[in-house]
């Protein structure tokens, strides 16, 4: 997975929020897109997959698609071709100065993730009428979906943080399944919170987010002995070469992996209900909860 991660890795130059600021020199009447706009859409995607009774990994994958797509946006000084394929997406560029396009791009990425990662059949009419509350027509959705796929060069199977910490937890020297499950849920919560933070999601590799989330989870979970934790981390170092002293991991641990305490409580509550519900609601109506505060229905 680490080899795959390298092929999908974003670079420092892929700071699309910085591109958004520079584009306003050429589009002075455009919308100002911020990291808060991105966070609002990410939280909304968690609500959607919760309504579908799916893993939030699907939403995390959608967020990764979205970040990669917007990284293909170009400033007017960027070269558009490398001689083989289009490097920059015109629609991604427009999405950085138009909230309507920004939302449309995110919705398209979520639909792609639902189809590709969960194998779900998602009808365009439902997305338009229910998910988007008629803000976008089916043609707009289909065209943006194809634009995203082209911009990503149809490369949709890069690893997510969930893929990494699920593998990491296979090395956890505990015979109690409930302990492993508890740590896994903590890791998921940490990683899902980290993906809300633009700087973490774009600049840190999925394996770094996963490893840092796991370290925070182990630190907060008292049912694993210090000797077990040490053996666990030693095994991961032997297999992956990752250690607690890696520069990127130290930086994330000093950062904001758990900075929104209210969100943590919400995530735990929703995770509990998601894992303990005996009902399986219909996809077509439960996907948009009645009390949803979705940003999709009007441009902010």
- Radius of gyration over all CA atoms, rounded: 20 Å
**Number of E-state strands:** 0
One letter per element, helices H and strands E, the order comes to HHHHHHHHHHHHHHHH
Mean pLDDT: 76
Distance between the termini: 38 Å
Gist?
It contains 16 helices and no strands. The protein has 300 residues and is mainly alpha-helical.
Task: Set out the fold topology.
Layout: H1 2-8, H2 16-23, H3 35-51, H4 57-70, H5 90-95, H6 99-118, H7 124-131, H8 138-151, H9 161-168, H10 177-196, H11 198-203, H12 206-220, H13 226-240, H14 247-254, H15 261-276, H16 283-286
Helix pairs in contact: 3-4, 4-6, 6-8, 9-10, 9-12, 10-12, 10-15, 12-14
Describe this structure in words.
Helix 9 packs antiparallel against helix 10 (177-196). This protein has helices spanning 2-8, 16-23, 35-51, 57-70, 90-95, 99-118, 124-131, 138-151, 161-168, 177-196, 198-203, 206-220, 226-240, 247-254, 261-276, 283-286. It is built from 16 helices and no strands. It has 300 residues and is an all-alpha fold.
């Amino acid at each position: 997975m680490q080899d795959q991660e390298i092929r999908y890795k974003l670079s420092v130059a892929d700071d699309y929020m910085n591109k958004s600021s520079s584009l306003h020199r050429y589009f002075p009447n455009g919308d100002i897109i911020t990291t808060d706009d991105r966070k609002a859409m990410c939280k909304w995607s968690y609500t959607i997959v919760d309504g579908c009774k799916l893993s939030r990994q699907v939403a995390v994958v959608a967020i990764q698609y979205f970040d990669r797509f917007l990284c293909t946006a170009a400033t007017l000084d960027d070269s558009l071709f490398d001689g083989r394929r289009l490097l920059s997406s015109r629609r991604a560029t427009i999405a950085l100065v138009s909230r309507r396009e920004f939302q449309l791009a995110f919705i398209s990425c979520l639909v792609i993730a639902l189809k590709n990662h969960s194998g779900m059949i998602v009808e365009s009419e439902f997305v338009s009428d229910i998910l988007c509350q008629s803000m976008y027509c089916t043609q707009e959705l289909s065209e943006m979906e194809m634009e995203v796929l082209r911009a990503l060069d149809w490369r949709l199977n890069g690893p997510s943080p969930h893929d990494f910490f699920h593998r990491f937890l296979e090395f956890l020297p505990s015979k109690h399944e409930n302990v492993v499950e508890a740590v896994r849920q903590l890791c998921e919560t940490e990683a899902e919170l980290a993906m809300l933070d633009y700087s973490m999601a774009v600049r840190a590799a999925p394996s770094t987010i996963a490893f840092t989330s796991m370290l925070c989870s182990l630190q907060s979970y008292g049912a694993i002995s210090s000797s077990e934790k040490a053996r666990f981390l030693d095994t991961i170092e032997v297999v992956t070469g990752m250690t607690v002293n890696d520069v990127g991991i130290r930086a994330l641990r000093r950062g904001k992996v758990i900075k929104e305490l209210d969100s943590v409580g919400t995530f735990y509550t929703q995770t509990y209900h998601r894992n303990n519900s005996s009902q399986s609601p219909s996809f077509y109506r439960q996907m948009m909860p009645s009390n949803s505060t979705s940003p999709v229905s009007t441009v902010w």
